[in-house]
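>> received
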Amino acid sequence: MTDRSPDTTASRGPASRTDVDIATGVLVGRLGGTVSEQVDSLFATARENRISLFELSRTVITLAEGKSVGDVASRQVALAQWGDAFVTHSAAEDSIPA
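>> returned
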């Protein structure tokens, strides 16, 4: 089945500081910690993997929306770093033994 919901990240135009703020909020909301800790995590992850902070931020947002990410490299980095943040509730329940 094709996802027909609008791609809100593409409609926002070029990635920006707003995307960093939104991605930070996603990480705080899903993983906990402070805003400062999650901003540091975004910056460090982008720097260590030599990818754009803005691209990584947009990828975090897109994954949180449950949509497909076009940039494979940033998707791999985001999932490796914060994969648990993007596991759906039902998928997490399915993995718990009865």
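>> The chain has six helices and no strands.
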